[in-house]
C-alpha cells in the first residue's frame, strides 16, 4: 500500500515485528501491526498521552507492555487455562487496510478475521476492524462483525496505559460511588470512593455499567487526561504496584510509579451479543485536558 506523507513502515525491536511511525505537525505515534496496537502517541505541543514501558518486549505472540493493546474477543483470564488472558487479538498480526491523511489528520484501519487458529480458541467467524484517527487526540473505533450463521457474544477492552508523573499524586474521576469487582480481593463487590480514586497499593478493579467518561488528574504536573466513550460501558482501573511489577518482568524500573491503566470496553454484564450478519462499532476518544 502507498503510504501518505508522514507515515512510514518500520521494524519494531529485533524480532521481526513491524509497524508504522506517524509524524505530522499535530502528533507523532507508533503502531504495531501485531494487535493493531498503538504503542505511543504524543501531540507536538503536549506531554505523551500513552505510557510505554522502557522494558516493553517486541516479540511475536507477546503483547508489548504499554500503549493500547486490544483485549478481544474476551477480557480477562478464562477458566480454561489453555486460552490466553485478554483474548488472542493482541497477539495476532492485523492487516493494514487503509492509511489516509486528510490535512494533518491521519486515519489508519486494520483488520483481523477468523482462521483455523482463532476458531480453535473461539469457534466463530468474525471480522474486527480497529480504526485509529490521530490528530490532536486519539479516536479509536473497534467494529466487530458477526460473519457466522448464529449469534455470538464477546467482551473486549481497549487496554489503555496512561503516563502520570507520580501515581501517589494521581486521581481518577468519573467513577465516584460506583460498585466495582475487586480482583485483588477475590472479586468482592465494593463501592468506589466518593471523591475520586487514589492509589496506595495494587489496584485491579472492574466497573460495569460505568458510564464511559473519566478524567485522570496528574496533580504533580497539573495535567488532566480525558477519556470519553458512550459505547464502552465498562471500565477497568489497574496499577500492578511493586510486587506484581517485579513478577511481570517488563514494567521497567519503578515503572508502576509513572503509569496507570484506565481501560474502556464492555465486559461481564456489559458483554455484547451480535446476531448473524450484524456489526457494531465502539468508539473511544482520548485526549489531553
Ligand atoms: C488488567 C487486568 O486489565 O490487565 C489485570 O485487570 C492484569 O488483572 C492486567 O494483570 C495485565 O494483563 P496482562 O495479561 O497484559 O499482563
Model description:
This protein has 289 residues and is mainly beta. Helix content is 5%, strand content 45%. The chain contains 2 helices and 23 strands. The chain has helices at residues 116-121, 241-248, and strands at residues 7-12, 17-23, 27-32, 37-43, 70-71, 95-102, 105-113, 126-134, 138-146, 152-154, 156-158, 161-163, 170-173, 179-182, 188-191, 197-198, 203-207, 213-218, 223-228, 234-239, 259-266, 272-274, 279-288. The chain is globular, with a radius of gyration of 18 Å.
Describe the structure using short key phrases.
mainly beta; 289 residues; globular; binds 6-O-phosphono-beta-D-glucopyranose; 2 helices; 23 strands; 45% strand; eight-stranded antiparallel β-sheet; nine-stranded antiparallel β-sheet
Class per helix and strand makeup: mainly beta
- Biggest sheet character: 9 strands, antiparallel
Work out the number of β strands: 23
What percent strand? 35-45%
Question: What's the layout of helices and strands?
Answer:
Blueprint: E1 7-12, E2 17-23, E3 27-32, E4 37-43, E5 70-71, E6 95-102, E7 105-113, H1 116-121, E8 126-134, E9 138-146, E10 152-154, E11 156-158, E12 161-163, E13 170-173, E14 179-182, E15 188-191, E16 197-198, E17 203-207, E18 213-218, E19 223-228, E20 234-239, H2 241-248, E21 259-266, E22 272-274, E23 279-288
The protein binds 6-O-phosphono-beta-D-glucopyranose.
